[in-house]
Amino acid sequence: MAMDSQHQKLISHNQYMTHRYGEKVHILSSPMMLSLLAKLGSPQTFQPQINELVSLLYSHLMDEVADSLFPRTTVKMETRMSLAHPEASYEGEVINPSVPVVTVDLARAGTLPSQICYHKLNYLMNPEVVRQDHFYIARECDESGKVIGANISGSKIGGGVDGSIVLFPDPMGATGSTIVEVYNHYKKNVGGKPLIMAAIHLIVTPEYLRKVTHECPDLHVFSLRLDRGLSPEKILESVPGTYWDQEKGLNPHQYIVPGAGGLGEIMNNSYC
C-alpha cells in the first residue's frame, strides 16, 4: 500500500512575531497564549490560578519547542482498526522518541515550568531518555540593587548531555545572567556536546536578548511575549530589533515592564 504523502516531511506552521534579533529567537504570535499571559500578570489573579496559568502556558511552549526543534523519524504503527483492515496503519513522521532530553529546573521560578516540560516529555519521548536536572540559582546584585550576575548555590545533575536536547524553562528572561551562567556550566562542566540547547520563557526583554544572543550563540530562545515598555514611542512603533540599542524593558531594579511581577515570589507565595 502506498504511503500517504501528507504525513511525510511534516511542516510546522507555527506563527511567530516579526523581529530582527536573529534566527534563533522565536517570539510566538498566539492570541490565546497572550490572553492567558495577560491574565497571569494581572493584580487581580491569585493562587491557585497563578500556577494553573503557568502550567497551561508552559504546556503550549513545550509543544512549540518540540514541533520546531526536535528531530523526527518515520514510523509505521498499527491502529486499532488493523483487526478489520490490515492496511490500517499510520505511516509517517513523528518526533524521534529516542533522542535524550534534559529539562533543567532553575529554582525557584523555574521549578514548576521544568516539571511541566518533564511530565509532557515523558509521554512524548521514551521515558528512559528523559531527565530533569536541578539548579539553585539566584540573582547577584550590587549595593544599589542592580543585577551584576547570578550565583549558583547548588545543583543536582544526572549525567552527561552528549547528543541531548537541553531545555532551560525559566519564566522571566530579564537580564540574561541566569541563562548565561547555566548555559556556560553545561558547556564547560558537564560532559558531552548537546544536540540542541533552548531557553523557554513567558516574557523576554531586549536587554536579555542582547546578552544571550551574544554570549550563547547556539542557544535557541522561545518566548510568548517581548516586553520593551520603557522604550520611547518611536521605538515602540518600530519592528522589534530595528533599534535594538534604544529598546528598553527593564526598570532600574531589573524588573520587566510591563512584565508580570516577581513570578518567583508570586508562584511560591514567598517574598524574601
How would you characterize the overall build of this protein?
- It is a single chain.
- With 272 residues, the chain is α/β, with parallel strands linked by helices.
- The protein has one domain (15-72, 90-268): Rossmann fold (3-Layer(aba) Sandwich).
- Helix content is 29%, strand content 26%.
- The chain contains seven helices and ten strands.
- The chain has helices at residues 31-40, 49-69, 111-124, 177-189, 206-215, 233-236, 263-268, and strands at residues 25-27, 72-78, 89-95, 101-107, 130-141, 147-156, 165-169, 172-173, 196-204, 219-226.
- Strands 1, 4, 5, 6, 7, 8, 9 and 10 form an eight-stranded mixed beta sheet that branches. The chain has a two-stranded antiparallel ribbon with strand order 2-3.
- Strand 5 and strand 6 (147-156) form a beta hairpin.
- The protein is globular and about 70 Å long.
- The termini are far apart.
- The model has no long low-confidence stretch (mean pLDDT 90).
- Helical stretch tally: 7
Q: What is the first-to-last residue Cα distance? A: 64 Å
CATH topology: Rossmann fold
Main beta-sheet strand count, sense and barrel state: 8 strands, mixed
Assembly level? single chain
Q: Which percent range describes the beta-strand content?
A: 25-35%
Question: What is the CATH top level name?
Answer: Alpha Beta
Whole-angstrom Rg: 20 Å
Helices and strands, in order, run as EHHEEEHEEEEHEHEHH
The name of the CATH architecture is 3-Layer(aba) Sandwich
Poorly predicted sequence stretches spanning 5 or more consecutive residues: none
